[in-house]
Design goal:
With about 240 residues, the chain is of the alpha+beta class. It has a single domain (about 5-235), classed as ApbE-like domains (T-fold), CATH 3.10.520.10. The chain is built from six helices and nine strands. The protein has helices spanning about 15-30, 40-45, 55-70, 90-105, 190-200, 205-215, and strands at about 5-10, 110-115, 120, 135, 140-150, 155-160, 180-185, 220-225, 230. The strands form two sheets. It has a seven-stranded antiparallel sheet. It has a two-stranded antiparallel ribbon with strand order 4-5. Helix 1 packs antiparallel against helix 4, helix 4 (about 90-105) packs antiparallel against helix 5 (about 190-200) and helix 5 (about 190-200) packs across helix 6 (about 205-215). The longest helix is centred in the N-terminal third of the chain and has 19 residues, at about 15-30.
């Protein structure tokens, strides 16, 4: 998937389930990676694969992307300026949520799955404590500036400090977002957090207002001036 992945599963089934989860992520990479010439999405973008041959997973993701575009007034858009499709902004959270479902269906209630900063956890860690997630300082990657306790919710962060400028306002002139550098969103699960984090970041400084006004979401944005702004309910997740 072009990013580091962490899977922490306790209990006797842990090792086998970790392998199953990584096999699933490998499958998703082979289908959706825009960096692989042999992926399904690359074949679609080349015009080599007619719609009738698109996989069910591809159709599901594209439908979810269209729904998210509608829910965000067009700020989430997987169609790039050159007309190609890049579902990366929605596939990651969707895949992590599906991986969590694999673990839960195996009867495991304590786990932590993270890919590229997007996280789904459940239950408790090996020390018997609630899982905690650190938000990095976008100006100093070695520093954690805030710790949150998701308690079964999903956490996703969009920003420029890891991958550089890669999120653009699809409704504007196409330039990169510069007024904010990091936006963390907590949602009912990682899919909800991920898709709305991407859209809200594309809104720039108005993104935190969108998160504030959307039921079921909380957020924490850091501006290019270093100032952090949380939503009104974010504090509930920053206490152990």
């Amino acid at each position: 998937m072009g990013m580091p992945i962490t899977v922490d599963i306790g209990g006797a089934l842990g090792a086998a389930l970790v392998d199953t989860v990584f096999d699933y992520f490998g499958h998703i990479d082979r289908r959706f990676s825009t960096y692989r010439a042999d992926s399904e999405i690359s074949a679609i973008n080349r015009g080599d694969l007619p719609v009738r041959d698109w996989s069910g997973e591809m159709m599901d993701v594209l439908a979810l992307a269209a729904q998210t575009k509608n829910q965000t007034d067009g700020y989430f858009d997987i169609r790039k300026p050159d007309g190609s499709l890049d579902p990366s902004g929605i596939v990651k959270g969707w895949a992590i949520r599906n991986a969590a479902g694999i673990v839960q269906r195996a009867g495991v209630g304590d786990f932590f799955i993270e890919a590229g900063g997007d996280i789904q956890s459940w239950g408790r860690n090996a020390s018997g404590l609630d899982w905690s997630v650190g938000i990095r300082n976008p100006f100093n990657a070695d520093e954690i500036i805030k710790v949150v306790y998701p308690r079964g919710h999903g956490v996703a962060t969009s920003g420029t400090y890891a991958r550089g400028q890669h999120i653009y306002n699809p409704l504007g002139v196409g330039g990169p977002i510069t007024e904010i550098v990091s936006l963390t969103v907590i949602g009912s699960d990682v899919f909800e957090a991920d898709r709305f984090a991407t859209a809200a970041f594309a809104m720039g400084r108005d993104g935190i207002l969108f998160i504030e006004q959307t039921p079921g979401l909380e957020g924490y944005v850091i501006g290019s001036n270093g100032r952090a702004t949380p939503t009104s309910g974010f504090g509930a997740f920053s206490r152990p």
